[in-house]
What we know:
alpha+beta; 15 strands; 5-stranded mixed sheet; binds 2,5-anhydro-1,6-di-O-phosphono-D-glucitol; 7 helices; Fructose-1,6-Bisphosphatase, Chain A, domain 1; 337 residues; D-Maltodextrin-Binding Protein, domain 2; binds manganese (II) ion
Amino acid sequence: MKRKTLTQYLVEQQRQADGLGAEVRLLIEVVARACKSIGHAVGKGALGGVLGSLDSENVQGEVQKKLDVLSNEILLEANEWGGHLAAMASEEMETIHAIPNRYPKGEYLLLFDPLDGSSNIDVNVSIGTIFSVLKAPTHVAGAPVTEADFLQEGSRQVAAGYAVYGPQTMLVLTVGKGVVGFTLDREMGSWVLTHENIRIPEDTREFAINMSNMRHWAPPVRRYIDECLAGATGTRGKDFNMRWIASMVADVHRILTRGGIFMYPWDAREPGKPGKLRLMYEANPMSFIVEQAGGAAVDGVNRILDIKPGQLHQRVGVVLGSRNEVERVAQYHREAG
Ligand code: AHG
Ligand code: MN
Ligand code: MN
Ligand code: MN
């Protein structure tokens, strides 16, 4: 039976009763095309001169990789003329990018991490792109879009998705009606629906955390991981496996595929920061996807999608994946007070 394409899936969603707006459908198709271009550049590697770092730093204080900047430019150029957006925001841009006056403005906001897992670019490990779609608040005619317009809880996302540039190039997407996965048919250049209803198992034996930070963790995190490490002879009564790819997109994709718990919690290395990952364009889109697949996502205790953002680039602790394991970690945080 012929598989559906991204366009067919989106048109079907649009025809549903409380369906997807045509603007959002077109916007997602533009983003998906941009991800194809990013994946093409990623695939060239050294042959495309896209590896290595620049002398510049981003607002996060990170040295920018060539692909961080190239991916950001690809997404900006693909999306600014289409007329679907009021503005964009990115990990790689300090301030929001308002749509230039020479183009029509739309009623949506697009946020993205253009290249996630940058530390893996030069070692040929899977990386990705993460994106989130919000509705722009209605403005008094002509009033400019501001950063404050972006500061909406993750529960208000209209759509979210990621592309993962790995052995296959895949696009995983939610428009609030479950989670679907598309595999790029590189010969035809089309996104083909290959995963019609992605669900995360409620239980798991696999955890993902950067163990080198163990001495900096808060007690509830240490308690949870120690119990996993104690295995079948410990209180959990089962052995656990560990994976840490250090590309959130790849770790989350594994969890969507076979279950697991992903943790990037607060740690004492920078006590003033709630975590490493960014709320608006990493934690929120991934939490929307994970919840739509039957999983859970908390900052340690609170549901991530309920967090009211204060700044565009604010960070947050992240514990997401198999619902029963995430709930256990949240319970340990509540017990620790
Ligand atoms: P980015 O490359 O967009 O800055 O994100 C990297 C993030 C995330 O993808 C990953 O889970 C985490 O950083 C890995 O952090 P460590 O290198 O500290 O393990
Ligand atoms: Mn990232
Ligand atoms: Mn990034
Ligand atoms: Mn980065």
